[in-house]
Amino acid sequence: MNSGHRFHAQTLHDFIQAIFRQMGSHEQEAQQVADHLIAANLAGHDSHGIGMIPSYIRSYSLGHLQINQHASVVKDAGAIVTLNGNGAFGQVAAHEAMALGIDKAREFGIAAVALHNSHHIGRIGYWAEQCAAAGFVSVHFVNVVGNPMVAPFNGRDSRFGTNPFCVVFPRKNDFPLLLDYATSAIAFGKTRVAWHKGVSVPEGCLIDADGIPTTDPAVMQVSPLGSLLTFAQHKGYALAAMCEIMGGALSGGKTTHQETLQDSADAILNCMTTIIINPELFGAPDCEQQTEAFAGWVKASPHADDAPILLPGEWEVNTRRERLEQGIPLDAGSWQAICEAAQQVGMSEERLQTFRQRLGC
Ligand SMILES: NC(=O)c1ccc[n+]([C@@H]2O[C@H](COP(=O)([O-])OP(=O)(O)OC[C@H]3O[C@@H](n4cnc5c(N)ncnc54)[C@H](O)[C@@H]3O)[C@@H](O)[C@H]2O)c1
Predict the structure, then answer these.
(1) What gap in Å lies between CA 269 and CA 287, rounded to an integer?
(2) pLDDT at 2 (0 to 100)
(3) Is Oxidoreductase found in the keyword set (predicted)?
(4) Do the beta carbons of residue 240 and residue 183 sit within 8 Å?
């Protein structure tokens, strides 16, 4: 396989689903995890796509990730509900939490759903898209418990996770507006992808173990480890801190501090507090017209032909369209690591070879 290889999305999905079935997941769980990971790659967020598989398998073998497990309600206070993810696949627990929150928002007009102790919930935009597909606005505050890799503003070592923040706004006749990003200058997974590809990351994203700025992604992969910086200096740091508190503390989960440090980087535990709102219930008859007028107004700003003005979420829509047509690109290092993970869970060389042939590599 050369570095320019592209994989057909559905065929790759079949392979990913087979890996989780081989690991012991029931059919539906294997499908939900594969759906989510492939959707992240299709959206262009390879950092949260199938490249996570080796880490998930290590987490399972270390006893952190619980397969065939579900979220359970800890407290139901009507419009506010708290769930324990029970260490389940985040792709299962977050789906269940969003489904319950959507039901609550239908009933009450607004709902807050808190999920703690879930394994990695991946690309947060996926959960926002679940809310938007039901016609709701949603806001998501997320923390990563005890896995610090981001330095506070002015700090020189890692004190918290890449704490993503996400907002979605559905539109009647177009794609939902979607803000979805890590509060670190770049997602950790993007340093992994850059490291596999042997390329640098942009300036202003990393410091090394001595707190010196660097563009070498190896400082996030090889000891002594450095740190990611937050985006937008003190502003990004403040948002990251609020994601930690809103996501970790308010959800009934944990924040990152000395007592909650995880012994393995593969034990990715997420907490998420989500606010889901029915936009129909505001006294805003012009909301749609005002939204579209603003979208057209900003897009009309003069710009270079090769640097279009995009709305939040549009980059993902464009990337999805392109990858459904052209296939999902994957570097050789990530592909090798996924194949090794498949063998680790017991997939035979013969079966692996069949998938390789179907995928054309
Ligand atoms: N589960 C976790 O613990 C965790 C942690 C960190 C990140 N994540 C996920 O990682 C993914 C990647 O995060 P990231 O920080 O690398 O995202 P990113 O830097 O690629 O930013 C993505 C956001 O920027 C918007 N965008 C991109 N280009 C644009 C343009 N030209 N104009 C306007 N808007 C534009 C996108 O629509 C999207 O809202 C996200 O899906 C996030 O949820 C998850």
Answers:
(1) 37
(2) 53
(3) yes
(4) yes
Given a cut of 60, is residue 180 above it in pLDDT?
yes
pLDDT level of residue 1 (50, 70, 90 thresholds): low
**Domain 71-184+232-282 bears CATH identifier 3.30.1370.60:** yes
Residue 142 structure tokens: 């997320």
Does ligand 1 lie within 6 Å of residue 277's CB atom?
no
Single pTM value for the model: 0.96
Confirm or reject: Cβ of 121 under 6 Å from ligand 1: yes
- 345 C-alpha to center of ligand 1: Å? 31
Residue 163 C-alpha to ligand 1 middle, in angstroms?
11
Burial degree of 171 (CB within 10 A; 0-12, 13-18, 19+): middle
For ligand 1, is residue 180 a contact (CB within 6 Å)? yes
CATH code given to domain 192-229 = 3.30.60.50
Which of 117, 315, 321 maximizes ligand 1 atoms within 8 Å of its Cβ, making it the mutation to test the pocket?
A: 315
Region 158-184: mean pLDDT is 97
The domains of the chain are located at 1-61+329-361, 71-184+232-282, 192-229
- 98, 274 contact by CB (below 8 A): yes
Q: Residue of the nearest CA to atom 16 in ligand 1?
A: 187
Give the atom of ligand 1 at the shortest distance from the alpha carbon of 40.
Answer: 41
Backbone phi, psi, residue 222, to 5°: -125, 135
What does DSSP say about strands 269-277 and 227-228: parallel, antiparallel, or unpaired?
A: unpaired
Return the CATH fold of 1-61+329-361.
Answer: Hypothetical Oxidoreductase Yiak; Chain: A, domain 1 (1.10.1530)
| pLDDT category of residue 3 using cuts at 50, 70 and 90 | low
Question: Mean per-residue pLDDT for 332-341?
Answer: 94
315 lines ligand 1 (CB under 6 A): yes
Q: Is the Cβ atom of 47 under 6 angstroms away from ligand 1?
A: yes
- Does 4 have pLDDT greater than 70? no
